[in-house]
Every structure is written in structure tokens, then in C-alpha cells.
């Protein structure tokens, strides 16, 4: 058994709470690692927190600067030559494009160590897969991800979300919600098969627990219909019935739904509310409008009609909630399409996973206050096609 396979087996058989200790022990014994640290990204994507028992026994490091932050942002190993002939490598821990954190490994700076760097990068990916599995059985990594206490509504929403990003040959996705530790009703969801990508961007009315309960009901109703193989418009109709049956029209949820054929880029769209879509094609940004239909749950037995959209290779689609484009500056100026267009063009060279955070930082400067009054959601889809 080679070294990589030995570490992989050790991680797959380790107790869920012991992954950091296991990778540290195995890399020390098989790769002569002098120090190993596993850091996870916090919910707000601002810090990398070392995984320790008890949680937060070590201080976090910034995700915006420093070697670990550079590896996380670029999604490439970052090497540092240290004194006394040592080498430190920062390795992204990522699962299908979902950025989990960084594995920091300090080694003797030898020919064998440098030759082992591709294996170590693969070990970091194995660690990421095992963390996602372990989250079902331990709170350790979820505790490490929080730099502050989550509200109950935010706890419910994070358990509902698929992740911050996803990367497959046909597309790259990135998403971010603010305030990360106190969000209410905004949500996104995605799912892919060999043939299709389905994406929902939603905004449930209300605040706090009431908004989170509404969003949980609607998103799970949409998932239930999707997993039954039901077409997009009928997914919306069934979720509409579920929400109306619970709230009788007193509460409802706006959603923009896309179902995209991976081979052709042809998309079916249901626009049931206020999430907005902007497209950047060949450097030009335009607002993509659809025929507006009723939000889910507003009236009994609403029928939904799918519309068509052609997505071309190279297109970047940006989805935003009303907590983005309706935000006012201290002088009362709405953020709006013009500011969004500038932000999208300014971030055109960033990968999809980095765009939502960059747009939300621009929004915070426009808002002029440290925390938003309403949820702000940005989803970025880069389409490559086949």
C-alpha cells in the first residue's frame, strides 16, 4: 500500500470527530510533516478557523490575506520556503468546487517533499469529502465554521443550503448570503444530473423564524417535486399549493427557477416573484426580464408557465434578491441596475465562487452601515457548456 492510499484509508475509517488529528498523525508518520493544521472557512467567508477540540482554541486567520487566504481564494497550493530548510504548503480543501477550507502542512524542504506535493493536494481533497460525510455525525466542523452565534433562523437556513459553490465541467456556481449569522428568508438551491442543472433563487417574506419556516417549507416542497421527476412549472405549482395550504395566502415566497440543459444551454424559466437576473455576455451587462408570475402561496392553485432562455458558453448570470438592488445609500439612492452593472463588470476576472462576496462588499460600501437591514443574496453562474 502506497502512502497516499494509507492516508486515504485512515481518513475513511477515522471517527468523524478525529479527522484533523488523523491527517496530522498520518502526514507526520508517512511524509515527515513537522506541523499540520486544518482550517475551515466561516459562514461569512471572512475567516479561516483552525479545527480544534474544544472549538476555537486557536485564533482564526484572515481569509482575505495571508498565505492560507491566498490558497483558499486562488484554489491553488501556495508554497513558502521557511528558515532551517523547511517548506510550508497551503492546500485548498475543496469538494466539487465547494470550498471547505485549507490544509497547512510544514515539511523538510527536500526533493522527496516537493515530489509529494501532488499527493498532498489529493489528500486535502479526500479530507474535504470526509468532512462533508462527518457533518452528519458530529458538530465539530460546523462549530468551527461560526465566528459568532447563529440566530435560530440562520441555523435553519444554513442547514437548507447546498454550499457556497459548485464546479463541474459545464458550469461554475458561487453564492453568498448576508447577514451570514442572522439571515431570514432568502435562499438558493441547486442540483445537477448528467443532463441538467436546476437552480432556484428565492425570497420568503417576513423576518426571523417565520421567514425561515416559510422558506424551509417552500424549498423542501420544490425539492420533493423535483426529486419525483416533475417538470419545472409543475414543481412551482406543487410548492405553491403546499405554501398556500399552510398560510392561506397570508405569507408567500418569491422564486426564480431555472432548469438548464447541459448539452445545449437551453433553459426553462419560471419567474414567480422578485429575484432579478442580469447577464454578462462579451463584456456587456443587461437585465434579463421574464413575464412575472405570482409568488408561491399567494393564491390557491396557481398555474405556472415556463419561459425560454438560451445560455451561451462564456455567459455569466448574476441572480440577486431585493436586499441587493433595493438597498438605499445614506442619501437615499437605490443600489439598482446601474451600480450592479458596475459591480459585475468590476468582478469580471474573478471566478464565480468569488463574485458574490465581491459584489456584497461593494453593496456594503454603498449602504454605509456594517450590517444590512434585509437579507442580501447574490448567486453567480458561469456557463461553459459542452
From TrEMBL:
Domain of life: Bacteria
InterPro entries: Bact_Sigma-Reg (IPR052016), PPM-type-like_dom_sf (IPR036457), PPM-type_phosphatase-like_dom (IPR001932)
Coiled-coil positions: none
Any one Gene Ontology molecular-function term assigned to this protein's record: phosphatase activity
Keyword line: Hydrolase
SUPFAM superfamilies, A to Z: PP2C-like
PPM-type phosphatase domain location: 168-383
PANTHER family tied to this protein: STAGE II SPORULATION PROTEIN E (PTHR43156:SF2), STAGE II SPORULATION PROTEIN E-RELATED (PTHR43156)
Name of the protein in its database record: Serine/threonine-protein phosphatase
Source organism of the structure: Streptomyces seoulensis
Amino acid at each position: 500500500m502506497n502512502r497516499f492510499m494509507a492516508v486515504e484509508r485512515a481518513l475513511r475509517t477515522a471517527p468523524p470527530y478525529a479527522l484533523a488529528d488523523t491527517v496530522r498523525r498520518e502526514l507526520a508518520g508517512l511524509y515527515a510533516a513537522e506541523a499540520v493544521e486544518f482550517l475551515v472557512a466561516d459562514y461569512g467567508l471572512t475567516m479561516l478557523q483552525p479545527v480544534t477540540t474544544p472549538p476555537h482554541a486557536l485564533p482564526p486567520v484572515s481569509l482575505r490575506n495571508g498565505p492560507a487566504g491566498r490558497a483558499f481564494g486562488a484554489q491553488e497550493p501556495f508554497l513558502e520556503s521557511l528558515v532551517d530548510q523547511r517548506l510550508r504548503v497551503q492546500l485548498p480543501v475543496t469538494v466539487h468546487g465547494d470550498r471547505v477550507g485549507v490544509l497547512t502542512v510544514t515539511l523538510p524542504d527536500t526533493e522527496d517533499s516537493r515530489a509529494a506535493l501532488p499527493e498532498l493536494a489529493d489528500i486535502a481533497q479526500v479530507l474535504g469529502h470526509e468532512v462533508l460525510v462527518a457533518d452528519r455525525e458530529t458538530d465539530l466542523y460546523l462549530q468551527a465554521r461560526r465566528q459568532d452565534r447563529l440566530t435560530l433562523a440562520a441555523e435553519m437556513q444554513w442547514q437548507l443550503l447546498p454550499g457556497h459553490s459548485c464546479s463541474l465541467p459545464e458550469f461554475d456556481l458561487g453564492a453568498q448570503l448576508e447577514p451570514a449569522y442572522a439571515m431570514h428568508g432568502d435562499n438558493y438551491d441547486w442540483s445537477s444530473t448528467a443532463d441538467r442543472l436546476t437552480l432556484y433563487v428565492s425570497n420568503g417574506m417576513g423576518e426571523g423564524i417565520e421567514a425561515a419556516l416559510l422558506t424551509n417549507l417552500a424549498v423542501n416542497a420544490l425539492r420533493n417535486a423535483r426529486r419525483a421527476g416533475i417538470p419545472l412549472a409543475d414543481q412551482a405549482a406543487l410548492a405553491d399549493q403546499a405554501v398556500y395550504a399552510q398560510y392561506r395566502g397570508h405569507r408567500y415566497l418569491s422564486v426564480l427557477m431555472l432548469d438548464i440543459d447541459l448539452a445545449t444551454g437551453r433553459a426553462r424559466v419560471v419567474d414567480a416573484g422578485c429575484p432579478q437576473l442580469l447577464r454578462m455576455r462579451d463584456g456587456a451587462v443587461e437585465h434579463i426580464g421574464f413575464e412575472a408570475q405570482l409568488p408561491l402561496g399567494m393564491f390557491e392553485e396557481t398555474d405556472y408557465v415556463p419561459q425560454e432562455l438560451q445560455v451561451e458558453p462564456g455567459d455569466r448570470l448574476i441572480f440577486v434578491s431585493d436586499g441587493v438592488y433595493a438597498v438605499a445609500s445614506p442619501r437615499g439612492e437605490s443600489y439598482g441596475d446601474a451600480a450592479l452593472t458596475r459591480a459585475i463588470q468590476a468582478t469580471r476576472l474573478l471566478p464565480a465562487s468569488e463574485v458574490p462576496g465581491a459584489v456584497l462588499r461593494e453593496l456594503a460600501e454603498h449602504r454605509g452601515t456594517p450590517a444590512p437591514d434585509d437579507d442580501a443574496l447574490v448567486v453567480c453562474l458561469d456557463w461553459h457548456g459542452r
